[in-house]
Design goal:
The protein is built from three helices and two strands, in the order H-E-H-E-H. The structure holds zinc ion.
Amino acid sequence: MQPNQPPSLLADFKESCKVCEGSGRKLGYLEIDTLQPHLSQKCFQCQGRGYTLTQLGEDLLELYRPAIQQWIREELARADTR
Ligand SMILES: [Zn+2]
């Protein structure tokens, strides 16, 4: 692992959606949504992302949300002073 890079833990936070098996689509509709894009056939479980957060991922997101928001505020403030 590179010392200056954050550890790549994303794989621990995400898992392939069990409902659509990672395709992001509802099973049974195949390619019909490419012909009819206004009819959303996104997988209800993952909203078309093809993956869901693991419990660990959700817990950490909740835990770090205040820190992330603070970090964003600092970045915005820094951009303002340029
Ligand atoms: Zn899905």
